[in-house]
Design a protein that fits this description.
This protein is of the alpha/beta class. It is 42% helix and 19% strand. The protein contains 11 helices and 10 strands. Bound molecules: 5'-O-[(R)-(carboxyoxy)(hydroxy)phosphoryl]adenosine (KG4) and zinc ion (ZN).
Length: 326
Protein backbone atom coordinates (compact mmCIF):
# COMPACT_ATOMS: atom_id res chain seq x y z
CA UNK A 1 0.00 0.00 0.00
CA UNK A 2 1.51 3.35 -1.08
CA UNK A 3 0.38 6.47 0.75
CA UNK A 4 1.14 10.10 -0.14
CA UNK A 5 1.61 12.14 3.04
CA UNK A 6 1.21 15.93 3.14
CA UNK A 7 2.32 18.12 6.06
CA UNK A 8 1.90 21.90 6.35
CA UNK A 9 0.99 22.46 10.01
CA UNK A 10 3.73 24.96 10.81
CA UNK A 11 6.63 26.28 8.74
CA UNK A 12 7.69 23.20 6.79
CA UNK A 13 6.01 22.27 3.52
CA UNK A 14 6.48 18.52 3.21
CA UNK A 15 5.33 15.61 1.04
CA UNK A 16 6.37 11.95 1.12
CA UNK A 17 5.44 8.59 -0.33
CA UNK A 18 5.66 5.68 2.12
CA UNK A 19 5.02 2.03 1.38
CA UNK A 20 3.22 -0.14 3.95
CA UNK A 21 3.89 2.39 6.70
CA UNK A 22 7.53 1.44 7.06
CA UNK A 23 9.38 2.05 3.80
CA UNK A 24 10.03 5.65 2.81
CA UNK A 25 10.14 5.94 -1.00
CA UNK A 26 10.54 9.72 -0.88
CA UNK A 27 10.44 12.50 1.69
CA UNK A 28 10.75 16.12 0.56
CA UNK A 29 10.82 19.01 3.04
CA UNK A 30 10.91 22.71 2.15
CA UNK A 31 11.92 24.60 5.27
CA UNK A 32 10.94 28.24 5.74
CA UNK A 33 13.54 28.83 8.46
CA UNK A 34 15.49 31.41 6.42
CA UNK A 35 12.32 33.41 5.78
CA UNK A 36 11.13 33.46 9.42
CA UNK A 37 14.52 33.77 11.14
CA UNK A 38 14.76 37.46 10.27
CA UNK A 39 11.58 38.00 12.32
CA UNK A 40 12.91 35.87 15.23
CA UNK A 41 9.94 33.47 14.99
CA UNK A 42 7.19 32.19 12.71
CA UNK A 43 4.89 34.77 11.10
CA UNK A 44 1.66 32.80 10.38
CA UNK A 45 0.56 34.84 7.32
CA UNK A 46 4.00 34.51 5.74
CA UNK A 47 4.01 30.76 6.48
CA UNK A 48 0.68 30.08 4.76
CA UNK A 49 1.59 32.15 1.70
CA UNK A 50 4.86 30.25 1.43
CA UNK A 51 3.04 26.88 1.71
CA UNK A 52 0.81 27.99 -1.16
CA UNK A 53 3.83 28.72 -3.34
CA UNK A 54 5.69 25.48 -2.62
CA UNK A 55 3.10 22.76 -1.99
CA UNK A 56 2.55 21.64 -5.61
CA UNK A 57 6.26 21.51 -6.59
CA UNK A 58 7.04 19.64 -3.34
CA UNK A 59 4.32 17.03 -4.01
CA UNK A 60 5.53 16.64 -7.61
CA UNK A 61 9.09 16.14 -6.34
CA UNK A 62 7.94 13.52 -3.81
CA UNK A 63 6.06 11.63 -6.55
CA UNK A 64 9.02 11.81 -8.94
CA UNK A 65 11.56 10.70 -6.35
CA UNK A 66 9.31 7.76 -5.38
CA UNK A 67 8.91 6.93 -9.09
CA UNK A 68 5.18 6.78 -8.38
CA UNK A 69 2.28 7.47 -10.74
CA UNK A 70 -1.05 8.66 -9.30
CA UNK A 71 -2.50 5.26 -10.14
CA UNK A 72 0.17 3.62 -7.90
CA UNK A 73 -1.18 5.40 -4.82
CA UNK A 74 -3.70 3.86 -2.40
CA UNK A 75 -4.53 7.00 -0.45
CA UNK A 76 -3.60 10.50 0.69
CA UNK A 77 -2.95 11.34 4.36
CA UNK A 78 -2.81 14.98 5.40
CA UNK A 79 -2.26 16.80 8.71
CA UNK A 80 -5.51 18.52 9.78
CA UNK A 81 -4.35 19.71 13.22
CA UNK A 82 -2.96 20.84 15.59
CA UNK A 83 -1.11 23.73 14.00
CA UNK A 84 -1.47 27.16 12.44
CA UNK A 85 -4.92 27.52 10.83
CA UNK A 86 -3.76 29.23 7.63
CA UNK A 87 -0.96 26.70 7.15
CA UNK A 88 -3.18 23.66 7.80
CA UNK A 89 -5.74 24.95 5.29
CA UNK A 90 -3.23 24.83 2.44
CA UNK A 91 -2.35 21.18 3.09
CA UNK A 92 -5.91 19.99 3.69
CA UNK A 93 -7.37 21.74 0.64
CA UNK A 94 -4.55 20.59 -1.63
CA UNK A 95 -4.99 16.99 -0.40
CA UNK A 96 -8.75 17.18 -0.96
CA UNK A 97 -8.35 18.54 -4.49
CA UNK A 98 -5.86 15.81 -5.46
CA UNK A 99 -7.87 13.03 -3.79
CA UNK A 100 -11.06 14.13 -5.54
CA UNK A 101 -9.48 14.53 -8.97
CA UNK A 102 -7.44 11.30 -8.81
CA UNK A 103 -10.21 9.29 -7.13
CA UNK A 104 -8.14 8.44 -4.03
CA UNK A 105 -9.28 7.95 -0.43
CA UNK A 106 -8.42 10.82 1.90
CA UNK A 107 -7.51 10.74 5.58
CA UNK A 108 -6.95 13.58 8.05
CA UNK A 109 -4.07 12.92 10.47
CA UNK A 110 -3.44 14.38 13.92
CA UNK A 111 0.05 15.92 13.68
CA UNK A 112 0.97 14.64 17.18
CA UNK A 113 0.03 11.09 16.27
CA UNK A 114 2.09 11.57 13.10
CA UNK A 115 5.16 12.47 15.19
CA UNK A 116 4.85 9.13 17.04
CA UNK A 117 4.86 7.24 13.71
CA UNK A 118 8.28 8.67 12.84
CA UNK A 119 9.31 5.64 14.92
CA UNK A 120 7.87 3.30 12.27
CA UNK A 121 9.10 4.87 9.02
CA UNK A 122 12.62 3.50 9.28
CA UNK A 123 11.29 -0.05 9.25
CA UNK A 124 10.88 -0.59 13.00
CA UNK A 125 7.92 -2.21 14.73
CA UNK A 126 7.72 -0.69 18.22
CA UNK A 127 6.76 -2.97 21.08
CA UNK A 128 3.52 -1.76 22.71
CA UNK A 129 2.39 -0.61 25.23
CA UNK A 130 4.87 2.24 24.95
CA UNK A 131 5.36 5.59 26.61
CA UNK A 132 5.57 8.30 23.95
CA UNK A 133 7.32 11.57 24.75
CA UNK A 134 6.26 14.11 22.12
CA UNK A 135 8.41 17.21 22.49
CA UNK A 136 7.95 19.88 19.84
CA UNK A 137 7.53 23.63 19.42
CA UNK A 138 3.93 23.48 20.59
CA UNK A 139 3.73 20.35 22.76
CA UNK A 140 5.36 18.40 25.57
CA UNK A 141 3.01 15.45 25.86
CA UNK A 142 3.54 12.19 27.69
CA UNK A 143 1.25 9.55 26.21
CA UNK A 144 0.61 5.88 26.88
CA UNK A 145 0.13 4.12 23.53
CA UNK A 146 -1.50 0.72 23.94
CA UNK A 147 -2.16 0.03 20.26
CA UNK A 148 -2.69 1.77 16.91
CA UNK A 149 -5.19 4.54 17.61
CA UNK A 150 -5.29 3.78 21.35
CA UNK A 151 -3.79 6.70 23.31
CA UNK A 152 -4.02 7.89 26.89
CA UNK A 153 -2.71 11.36 27.66
CA UNK A 154 -0.71 11.12 30.91
CA UNK A 155 0.69 14.61 31.13
CA UNK A 156 1.32 17.77 29.16
CA UNK A 157 2.97 21.11 29.65
CA UNK A 158 1.13 23.57 31.84
CA UNK A 159 2.78 26.55 30.16
CA UNK A 160 5.61 26.60 27.59
CA UNK A 161 6.31 23.53 25.47
CA UNK A 162 9.89 22.23 25.59
CA UNK A 163 10.67 23.49 22.06
CA UNK A 164 9.04 26.83 22.84
CA UNK A 165 11.30 27.15 25.90
CA UNK A 166 14.36 26.46 23.71
CA UNK A 167 13.17 29.10 21.22
CA UNK A 168 12.44 31.73 23.88
CA UNK A 169 15.69 31.14 25.79
CA UNK A 170 17.59 31.35 22.52
CA UNK A 171 16.01 34.74 21.93
CA UNK A 172 16.97 35.86 25.47
CA UNK A 173 20.57 34.72 24.86
CA UNK A 174 20.51 36.21 21.33
CA UNK A 175 21.48 32.92 19.75
CA UNK A 176 18.97 33.01 16.87
CA UNK A 177 16.02 31.02 15.53
CA UNK A 178 15.13 28.16 15.71
CA UNK A 179 16.35 28.02 19.27
CA UNK A 180 16.80 24.28 19.76
CA UNK A 181 19.73 23.72 17.38
CA UNK A 182 21.23 27.14 18.36
CA UNK A 183 21.19 26.32 22.10
CA UNK A 184 22.50 22.81 21.47
CA UNK A 185 25.43 24.23 19.48
CA UNK A 186 26.25 26.91 22.09
CA UNK A 187 25.98 24.35 24.91
CA UNK A 188 28.71 22.25 23.30
CA UNK A 189 31.32 24.77 24.45
CA UNK A 190 29.57 25.60 27.74
CA UNK A 191 29.94 24.32 31.29
CA UNK A 192 26.56 23.01 32.46
CA UNK A 193 27.75 22.76 36.09
CA UNK A 194 28.45 26.49 36.41
CA UNK A 195 24.83 27.48 37.06
CA UNK A 196 22.22 25.33 38.76
CA UNK A 197 18.91 26.28 37.17
CA UNK A 198 15.53 25.28 38.70
CA UNK A 199 13.62 22.16 37.67
CA UNK A 200 9.82 22.05 38.04
CA UNK A 201 9.14 18.46 39.10
CA UNK A 202 5.37 18.90 39.66
CA UNK A 203 5.39 15.82 41.88
CA UNK A 204 2.57 13.26 41.59
CA UNK A 205 1.65 14.35 38.08
CA UNK A 206 3.08 13.63 34.63
CA UNK A 207 2.70 17.29 33.66
CA UNK A 208 5.60 19.56 32.75
CA UNK A 209 6.33 23.24 33.29
CA UNK A 210 9.17 25.22 31.72
CA UNK A 211 8.17 28.85 32.21
CA UNK A 212 9.89 29.18 35.64
CA UNK A 213 13.11 27.90 34.11
CA UNK A 214 12.79 30.41 31.27
CA UNK A 215 12.30 33.26 33.76
CA UNK A 216 15.33 32.07 35.76
CA UNK A 217 17.39 32.25 32.56
CA UNK A 218 16.09 35.76 31.90
CA UNK A 219 17.30 36.95 35.34
CA UNK A 220 20.60 35.09 35.10
CA UNK A 221 21.34 36.50 31.64
CA UNK A 222 20.68 40.02 32.95
CA UNK A 223 23.19 39.51 35.80
CA UNK A 224 25.93 37.88 33.74
CA UNK A 225 27.98 39.24 30.88
CA UNK A 226 28.03 37.85 27.35
CA UNK A 227 30.93 35.51 28.14
CA UNK A 228 28.56 33.41 30.28
CA UNK A 229 26.18 32.71 27.34
CA UNK A 230 27.44 29.23 26.50
CA UNK A 231 27.43 28.19 30.19
CA UNK A 232 23.83 29.44 30.58
CA UNK A 233 22.82 27.58 27.39
CA UNK A 234 24.40 24.36 28.67
CA UNK A 235 22.80 24.73 32.13
CA UNK A 236 19.38 25.41 30.56
CA UNK A 237 19.64 22.41 28.22
CA UNK A 238 20.66 20.22 31.17
CA UNK A 239 17.64 21.32 33.22
CA UNK A 240 15.13 20.65 30.39
CA UNK A 241 16.65 17.25 29.58
CA UNK A 242 16.81 16.25 33.27
CA UNK A 243 13.09 16.89 33.77
CA UNK A 244 12.00 15.28 30.48
CA UNK A 245 14.08 12.15 31.06
CA UNK A 246 13.27 11.70 34.76
CA UNK A 247 9.50 12.05 34.27
CA UNK A 248 9.39 9.86 31.15
CA UNK A 249 11.39 7.04 32.76
CA UNK A 250 9.30 7.21 35.92
CA UNK A 251 6.01 6.96 33.94
CA UNK A 252 7.40 4.06 31.89
CA UNK A 253 8.34 2.14 35.07
CA UNK A 254 5.05 2.87 36.81
CA UNK A 255 2.94 1.72 33.85
CA UNK A 256 5.04 -1.28 32.83
CA UNK A 257 5.70 0.02 29.30
CA UNK A 258 7.72 -2.19 26.96
CA UNK A 259 9.41 0.70 25.18
CA UNK A 260 9.82 4.46 25.18
CA UNK A 261 9.16 6.24 21.87
CA UNK A 262 10.80 9.65 21.60
CA UNK A 263 9.56 12.08 18.95
CA UNK A 264 8.98 15.73 17.95
CA UNK A 265 11.49 18.41 17.01
CA UNK A 266 13.21 18.50 20.43
CA UNK A 267 13.89 14.75 20.05
CA UNK A 268 16.64 15.82 17.62
CA UNK A 269 18.57 17.06 20.68
CA UNK A 270 21.62 14.85 21.24
CA UNK A 271 21.79 15.30 25.02
CA UNK A 272 18.13 14.29 25.36
CA UNK A 273 18.69 11.24 23.14
CA UNK A 274 21.79 10.17 25.06
CA UNK A 275 20.39 10.74 28.57
CA UNK A 276 17.11 8.98 27.82
CA UNK A 277 18.92 5.95 26.37
CA UNK A 278 21.30 5.89 29.36
CA UNK A 279 18.72 6.26 32.10
CA UNK A 280 15.90 4.12 30.73
CA UNK A 281 15.71 0.51 31.93
CA UNK A 282 13.64 -0.39 28.84
CA UNK A 283 14.56 0.07 25.14
CA UNK A 284 14.17 3.58 23.73
CA UNK A 285 13.29 4.09 20.06
CA UNK A 286 14.12 7.46 18.54
CA UNK A 287 13.84 8.47 14.90
CA UNK A 288 16.78 9.82 12.96
CA UNK A 289 16.99 13.58 13.82
CA UNK A 290 15.67 14.54 10.35
CA UNK A 291 12.51 12.55 11.11
CA UNK A 292 12.06 14.20 14.53
CA UNK A 293 11.30 17.64 13.11
CA UNK A 294 8.24 18.09 10.89
CA UNK A 295 8.10 15.83 7.83
CA UNK A 296 5.46 14.07 5.76
CA UNK A 297 6.83 10.51 5.94
CA UNK A 298 5.50 10.25 9.51
CA UNK A 299 2.07 11.46 8.30
CA UNK A 300 2.00 8.90 5.48
CA UNK A 301 3.05 6.11 7.86
CA UNK A 302 0.36 7.03 10.39
CA UNK A 303 -2.15 7.21 7.51
CA UNK A 304 -1.26 3.69 6.40
CA UNK A 305 -2.14 2.17 9.79
CA UNK A 306 -5.48 4.00 9.83
CA UNK A 307 -6.29 3.12 6.20
CA UNK A 308 -5.69 -0.58 6.92
CA UNK A 309 -8.53 -0.49 9.48
CA UNK A 310 -10.88 0.89 6.81
CA UNK A 311 -10.85 4.46 8.10
CA UNK A 312 -11.36 7.30 5.65
CA UNK A 313 -12.26 11.01 5.91
CA UNK A 314 -15.20 12.59 4.12
CA UNK A 315 -15.02 15.57 1.76
CA UNK A 316 -16.10 17.69 4.72
CA UNK A 317 -12.69 17.14 6.40
CA UNK A 318 -11.78 20.46 8.00
CA UNK A 319 -8.80 21.77 9.92
CA UNK A 320 -8.83 21.49 13.75
CA UNK A 321 -6.01 23.82 14.91
CA UNK A 322 -6.32 22.93 18.63
CA UNK A 323 -6.93 19.19 18.50
CA UNK A 324 -5.27 17.06 21.21
CA UNK A 325 -4.16 13.44 21.29
CA UNK A 326 -5.45 11.07 23.96
O1 LIG B 1 8.18 19.09 15.72
P1 LIG B 1 8.70 20.39 15.23
O2 LIG B 1 9.56 20.39 13.99
O3 LIG B 1 7.52 21.38 14.95
C1 LIG B 1 6.39 21.44 15.78
O4 LIG B 1 5.50 20.57 15.62
O5 LIG B 1 6.41 22.35 16.66
O6 LIG B 1 9.48 21.04 16.45
C2 LIG B 1 10.11 22.29 16.35
C3 LIG B 1 10.76 22.60 17.69
C4 LIG B 1 11.33 24.01 17.78
O7 LIG B 1 10.89 24.60 18.98
C5 LIG B 1 12.84 23.78 17.78
O8 LIG B 1 13.57 24.77 18.50
C6 LIG B 1 12.95 22.41 18.44
O9 LIG B 1 11.86 21.68 17.92
N1 LIG B 1 14.21 21.74 18.09
C7 LIG B 1 15.15 21.40 19.00
C8 LIG B 1 16.23 20.84 18.26
N2 LIG B 1 15.88 20.85 16.93
C9 LIG B 1 14.64 21.38 16.85
N3 LIG B 1 15.19 21.54 20.34
C10 LIG B 1 16.30 21.13 20.98
N4 LIG B 1 17.39 20.60 20.35
C11 LIG B 1 17.39 20.45 19.00
N5 LIG B 1 18.46 19.94 18.38
ZN1 LIG C 1 5.68 18.90 14.73
Amino acid sequence: MKILGIETSCDETAAAVVQDGRKTLSSIIASQVDIHSRFGGIVPEVASRQHLLTIIPIIEQAMTQAQAKWSDLDGIAVTFGPGLAGSLLIGVNTAKAIALSKDLPLLGINHLEGHIYANWVEGHTPDLPAICLIVSGGHSDLILMKGHGDYQLLGRTRDDAAGEAFDKVSRILELGYPGGPAIEKAALSGNSARFRLPRAWLKDTDDFSFSGLKTAVLHLAAEQDIAATTDIAASFQDAVVDVLVTKTVSAAKRLGAHQILLCGGVAANHLLRRMLAERSPIPVLMPNPTLCTDNAAMIASCGYFHFTTGECSGWDLDITPNIRLG
